[in-house]
Design a protein that fits this description.
Helix 1 packs across helix 3. The N and C termini lie far apart (74 Å). It contains 8 helices and no strands. Helix content is 72%, strand content 0%. This is Myb-like domain-containing protein. It comes from Rhizophagus irregularis. It holds the Pfam family Myb_DNA-bind_4.
Length: 136
Amino acid sequence: MVWSQQEIHTLIKLRQNTDQLYWNILERLRRAYWNNIANRLNNICNSNYVGNQCKRKFNNLVTVYKNIDRYEVNDQRRKRIQAYRIFFNELKTRFWEGPPDQHDVAMDTPTITQRRRNVRARRRRKERRGNSENNR
């Protein structure tokens, strides 16, 4: 079955609007989540999709988005890229990646050792600049 642009836009919006719910439900309940998305999409667009089709379509859109984002300049498949380009701005926020967890936040925060190394490295660079200016 070929998806219309309206159906794809609606699918993206439904997934985006329920993103918080998606990340808060258990993995085993995601099947019901996608069935709910399919039901809502079918009501809005007068279509006949099931949850698994919606999930696969959305995941394929994300994959194509990532490929466009990475390989846009050198990609040989220009026509396919142009077809998906219309959805690019909607996917730019990368909402499907979910909120950062505590591990991600902790990894972005420098440890005491890293901060000390950074301070030492700045001092060394400053000393080198001072030495090079004195040698002139």
